[in-house]
TrEMBL record, chains A, B:
Protein name stated in the entry: CRISPR-associated endoribonuclease Cas2
GO molecular function: hydrolase activity; metal ion binding; RNA endonuclease activity
Record-linked InterPro entries: CRISPR_associated_Cas2, Virulence_VapD/CRISPR_Cas2
Family membership noted in the UniProt record: Belongs to the CRISPR-associated endoribonuclease Cas2 protein family.
Cofactor(s) needed: Mg(2+)
Binding of Mg(2+), residues: 8
EC annotation from Swiss-Prot or TrEMBL: 3.1.-.-
Amino acid sequence: MMVLVTYDVNTETPEGRRRLRHVARECVNYGQRVQNSVFECLVDPAQFAKLKHSLAGIIDKERDSVRFYFLGANWKNRVEHLGSNTGYDPEGLLVT
Amino acid sequence: MMVLVTYDVNTETPEGRRRLRHVARECVNYGQRVQNSVFECLVDPAQFAKLKHSLAGIIDKERDSVRFYFLGANWKNRVEHLGSNTGYDPEGLLVT
C-alpha cells in the first residue's frame, strides 16, 4: 500500500534538528522523498507498523507532528504535481 | 472532495520567501493548514481548478514544488497522526 508521510519537526533546538535528521533517515528506509518533509512509502502493513513505531520513538510528541495518508492501490491516479519534480515511480523506472 | 496540498518553495531569496507566503495565503482560502507546508482542502472540482491555477501562477516552476493528493470521499479513514495535532474536522467541530 502507498502511504504518504508528512512531518513537521520543531528545529529550534539542536535536539530538534537531530530529531529531524532521524525522522528523514527513517523514512528513507521505507520510501522516496518527494519534498523536504514529504515521503511516499510503498509498504505492507507490517512495514508500516514498524515505520510508525520507530517514528513515534523519535519525535517529541508535544512539539513535532507526523501525518500518514493512506493513498490506496490506485495511488498513481491520486497525485498531481506542479513545478520541479523528483518524479519517480517506485513500481517502475525513475521518471525524469 | 478532499485534496491534500503539500509544497516546497525555495526560500533562498526574498522573492522565494514572498512566493512561500503567497502559496500559504492562497491555500488558506481553500482549506486547513495541518502542518507548515501541508493543507487539507475540501473542494469541488471547480474550486480545485481555481486553486491549482492560482498556485501555478505563484510558484517558480524550476525551483518550487506543489503536490496534490486526492484522498477521496473516505478521506477521514485514510489519515493517521502522531504528535502535536492542529486536529480539526472540516465537516464538523474543531477537534482539540
